[in-house]
Amino acid sequence: MIGLEVYLAVIMLISLILYMLTGGADFGGGVWDLFAIGPRAKTQRDIIHHALAPIWEANHVWLIVIVVLLFVAFPVAFATIGTALHIPLTLMLIGIVLRGTAFVFRTYDDQSERVHLRWSRLFAIASIITPIMLGIALGAIASGTINADPETAIVDTDFVSSWLKPFPFAIGLFTLTICAMLAAVYLTLETDDVAIQEDFRLRALIATISVGVMACISFLLSTNGAPAIRAGLGNSYWSIPFHIVTGLIAILGIWSIWSRQFKLARIVIPIQVTLIILGWGFAQYPNLVAPNLTFSNTAAPDSVLKPVLIIILCGGILLIPAFWYLYKVFKGRSLTE
Amino acid sequence: MEDLLVARFQMAMSLGFHIIFACVGIAMPLLMVIAEGMWLKTGDNTYLTLAKRWSKGTAIMFAVGAVSGTVLSFELGLLWPTFMAYAGPIIGMPFSLEGLAFFIEAIFLGIYLYGWERVPRKIHWMSGIMVLLGGTFSGIFVVTANAWMNTPVGFSIVDGKVTDIDPIAAMLNPSSFTQALHMTLAAFMAVAFAVAGIHAYFLRREPQNQFHRKAFAIALCVGAIVSILQPISGDISAKRLAKYQPIKLAAMEGQWETVRGAPLRIGGIPDEDNEVTRYALEIPKALSFLANFDPNSEIMGLKDVPRENRPPVAIVHFAFQIMVACGIVMIVAGILGGWLAWRKKGIPTQEWYLKFITICSPLGFIAIEAGWTVTEVGRQPWIIYNIMKTKDAVTSMPNLIIPFIGFTILYLFLSVVVVILLRRQIFYE
Ligand code: HDD
Ligand code: HEM
Ligand code: HEM
Questions:
Q1: pTM to 2 decimals?
Q2: What is the rounded distance in angstroms from the CA atom of residue B405 to the CA atom of residue A159?
Q3: Are A309 and A263 in contact (CB under 8 A)?
Q4: Of B112, B147, B314, B370, which sits with the fewest C-beta atoms within 10 Å of its C-beta?
């Protein structure tokens, strides 16, 4: 019999994947806003803006879902993370606030070039800080350095040493490159202008290669930085087939961008990202906050988990058509043609 | 400063900031849906312009509401980890439902704000209704979580550990209905009066402007109706307090002694050292009557609990007076407006009345901030009433003053920008 907490863990992992694929790409949009250079810089920024405007708030809710499920279903883990990672999470929050507000302020402030550019810069810089901090937090959680007592929720921490290390920072940059890659790939389909499409193609290629580089660096650092994850990714019965599939998908991704098969890339690249997160999830399971907190020893009782699962199920039935409609209205052209 | 105090300040500041934007997120969709509905019905394009103009201002407010709300969900863990480890599963139900409501709201908001030219008219209007429902229900759900902190039920404690959690009973605790009702009405009232006030200001300059006349009429109608319901709902809240949180009620009224036939105090200065309330205008037996429908019923006084378990009396008392005073002014404005409109068979645009409504525009928000101060400060020193003290819930993180200053500067900056941008929307387009 699988415990209810496992279903919740799976739902949280799926939410994280969806957050990366949607909200993550919105952060990536900010990266390319910052690197909008050359004669078409303004057009690039406009396209990024139009792509994000109607959907970013809905995409952002995935993060809230993850946080809420964490404190409902795994309260001790939430308390532990909030304590030990207070600093990176606070910086992430500041990033989230600045990014969201700079984005709308740009739309409604004075439309002169100077003012517009100022909000753009703020939006872009905040879009870069936020995923790095998120990655640092995830890296620290994976690294096995946060010692908490599952009974009392007391954490033994100096608030700094668990995240101020090479491995969490590598994961931070890894997360950023993933966001940038997703955004560039999606953006190739947001325009009919071939020159702009070429701009984003070039960016997609650069980002895809950076993702590969950061994946290697993270894997190497994990030997010392996150031994449990390293062991999971390296020695499990599923590790060899997993690495082969991920590698093939990555190559297919690069090839599809290279050969301008952008519709194919828009399918393959998200699959690649999904596999990366799934691999991490499997390697980390059954730990939630390594080394002491597992999904089962921090889980809330079934009397709490059951109604939450029912809400998620009913919610899913309500939300899937709603999301489908949202994306159909605003992304219809690039999805179907 | 002591870290506990800073944590409390940071929580209060974040909530006090968020609530303004959250109220706009609850109530503006109603005004927009009414305006758009009138357009669909009459074909008068002024209504369409109105709905579009309102939706621009709302878009700014929404974004700030969403990001400041995200900060709050994290802050529960960043500032009060012990509280959340204890209470997270018990109040998880409303928060999960709230997550669902957010999705509904955010999805349809995207369609509403950016879909004017892309979706059929009827569907666009229905999207507005969905935003309204999503916003209202997210407010209701989160307030039930707060209500649980006031009247915690739905679990038992065995050897200091929480067991037998019944999340549905926790969500439907004795304060949920009264607080959710009062808060939802408050959101509609505050926003309706603020909007009516802005358009009243313009009507004084251009009395015949159709755009402002229609906007003023819609907002005033909503505000007037709600302002009559609000004191009734406030009275229900007070009765709930008399039963479940008598000490909070005593602090609100500056009532030190436990007596039969307690008076209602207007004004007055509670003196916490000498345990008396001075200079108040006292209406004999009115408090007992309001609290229990019996002029001779017993009201518990602050002296019944040890000093360390009393909330800061002066703050709670003053905040309560401010809320009620704002409420009374708005009721007068509402009733007067209804009477003038009935006499004139039209929109009440008398110069003096417009001036009055302009002055009323911030009162609803002031009442909301004051009301939350009553509820939250009045619950002190408890974070979970009679179960966990706030000082036992705070994080072990030192130097909380740094994030507090950081967020304060950030929110001040955002407030300034929002005001500038709203002015731009209102004045120059
Ligand atoms: C437009 C805003 C507004 C107005 C005009 C009023 N209130 Fe209020 N009041 C609130 C906005 C509010 C609030 C901000 O929404 C609170 C805070 C917590 C809550 O549930 O509602 C609140 C709390 C609150 C409480 C404490 C409830 C608790 O601790 O659970 C009481 C007893 C009242 N109110 C009573 C009144 C009365 C008798 C009013 C008569 C005019 C009144 N309020 C007007
Ligand atoms: C009485 C208090 C509150 C009310 C009435 C309220 C209501 C709302 C409403 C209506 C929204 C959506 C509108 C908007 O985006 O502006 C919102 C946003 C949000 N609120 Fe609050 N809220 C309250 C307090 C809180 C608290 C205490 C938390 C967290 C612990 C919270 C978390 C959030 C979050 C995460 C969002 C963003 C959702 C999104 O992205 O759309 N709120 N709130
Ligand atoms: C948005 C409207 C709200 C406002 C303006 C508000 C205001 C405040 C204030 C003034 C305090 C500080 C009290 C003190 O320390 O003396 C406080 C504390 C707190 N509030 Fe609220 N509150 C609101 C809604 C909520 C909701 C909906 C929740 C929970 C779901 C909540 C949870 C808390 C917590 C956890 C604390 C800290 C512990 C404590 O001081 O008791 N608040 N709030």
A1: 0.91
A2: 19
A3: no
A4: B314
CA dist B220 and B82 (Å) reads 45
- What are the φ/ψ torsions at residue B161 (nearest 5 degrees)? -110, 145
**Rounded to the nearest whole angstrom, what is the distance from the C-alpha of residue B13 to the centroid of ligand 3?**
9
Instruction: Evaluate whether residue B31 is within a structural domain.
Output: no
What tokens were used for A175?
């997360």
Q: What is the DSSP letter of B257?
A: S
**Could you tell me if residue B289 is inside a domain?**
yes
User: Could you tell me the two tokens for B315?
Assistant: 């703050």
Which residue carries 């205008």 as its tokens?
Answer: B281
User: How open is the CA angle B82-B84-B86, to the nearest 5 degrees?
Assistant: 70
**Amino acid of residue A110:** D
In a domain, B125, yes or no: no
The domain spans of chain A are 4-315
Are A325 and B111 within 8 A, CB to CB? yes
B182 lines ligand 2 (CB under 6 A): no
| Residue pairs spanning A and B at CB distance below 8 A | 206
Q: What is the ipTM of this complex?
A: 0.87
- CB-nearest to A96 from B62, B70, B407 is B70
Q: Helix %, strand %, coil % for chain B, to 5?
A: 75, 5, 20
Q: Give the range of the structural domain holding residue B237, as residue numbers without chain letter.
A: 207-389
Asked if A277 and A17 touch (Cβ cutoff 8 Å), the reply is yes
Total domains in chain B come to 1
Indicate the SS3 state at residue B305.
coil
Distance B292 CA to ligand 1 centre (A): 18
Max Cα distance, chain A (Å)? 62
Is the dihedral angle over the CA atoms A206, A209, A215, A220 positive or is it negative?
negative
What is A4-315's CATH number? Answer: 1.20.1630
CB contact under 8 A, A93 and B398: no
A335 pLDDT tier (thresholds 50, 70, 90): very low
- Using the Cα atoms of residue A283, residue A289, residue A291 and residue A297 in order, give the sign of their dihedral: negative
pLDDT per residue over A78-120, tens digit each? 888 888 888 999 999 999 999 999 988 888 877 778 888 888 8
